[in-house]
């Protein structure tokens, strides 16, 4: 729980009553490596906050996997599109390591947002940040070459390099493993 409070302070502080209410809806869960937190076709009904581990947010098309994001410790995330549109997810969230995470059920979370202005403010700012991050990711894919995307990833995510497979890294960068090997060899 302390991890979520520290995370929230970086975005917008929560008052003490809100923290107590938030704590009452948190559920600590575990998944093993390669197990899903969210499956394609299911409806996203919770927020995830990783206490320990790492996940990938991905989809499959034409027999290939595309990784949109990696989420590791102390990050709040979900499939926002599935939740807000109240429809089946096109994505899956899969653990890349044994992962321990907090689950925040959306329905209860939204009730708390109505009750606590500090939580509503936090969630609004969080959603704005998530949108900005996704736009940056899309821009990077469309505007940068593979070598620049690799450099950006290794600079911003050095702590993840030894925790993800080269296949997953190549998928995230939108290239083949052979191309990734060439880029890494040229460094």
SSE series: HHEEEEEEHEEHHHHH
Rounded to an integer in angstroms, the radius of gyration calculated over CA atoms is 17 Å
Strand content: 15-25%
Count of distinct structural domains: 1
The main pleated sheet reads as:
4 strands, antiparallel
Instruction: Provide the CATH architecture.
Output: Sandwich
Describe this protein's structure.
It is a single chain. With 187 residues, the chain is of the alpha+beta class. Helix content is 49%, strand content 24%. It has a single domain (2-143), classed as Jelly Rolls. The strands form 2 sheets. Strands 1-8-3-6 form a 4-stranded antiparallel sheet. Strand 4 (54-61) and strand 5 (64-72) form a beta hairpin. It is globular.
Tag the structure with descriptive keywords.
about 190 residues; alpha+beta; Jelly Rolls; four-stranded antiparallel β-sheet; about 25% strand
Set out the fold topology.
Elements lengths: L1 H10 L4 H10 L1 E5 L4 E3 L7 E7 L1 E8 L2 E9 L3 E2 L2 H6 L6 E4 L3 E7 H10 L1 H27 L2 H11 L9 H8 L3 H9 L2
Antiparallel strand pairs: 1-8, 2-7, 3-6, 3-8, 4-5, 4-7
Helix pairs in contact: 2-4, 4-5
């Amino acid at each position: 729980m302390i991890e979520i409070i520290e995370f929230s302070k970086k975005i917008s502080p929560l008052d003490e009553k809100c923290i107590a209410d938030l704590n009452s809806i948190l559920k600590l869960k575990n998944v093993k490596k390669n197990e899903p937190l969210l499956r394609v076709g299911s409806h996203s009904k919770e927020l995830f906050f990783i206490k320990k581990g790492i996940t990938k947010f991905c989809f499959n098309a034409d027999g290939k996997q595309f990784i949109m994001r990696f989420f590791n410790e102390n990050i709040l995330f979900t499939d926002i599109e599935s939740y807000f549109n109240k429809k089946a997810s096109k994505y899956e969230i899969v653990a890349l390591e044994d992962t321990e995470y907090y689950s925040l059920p959306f329905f209860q979370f939204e009730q708390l947002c109505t009750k606590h202005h500090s939580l509503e403010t936090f969630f609004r700012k969080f959603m704005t940040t998530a949108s900005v991050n996704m736009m940056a990711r899309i821009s990077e894919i469309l505007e940068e070459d593979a070598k620049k995307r690799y450099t950006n990833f290794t600079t911003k995510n050095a702590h993840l390099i030894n925790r993800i497979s080269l296949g997953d890294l190549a998928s995230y960068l939108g290239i083949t493993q052979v191309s990734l090997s060439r880029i890494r060899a040229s460094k």
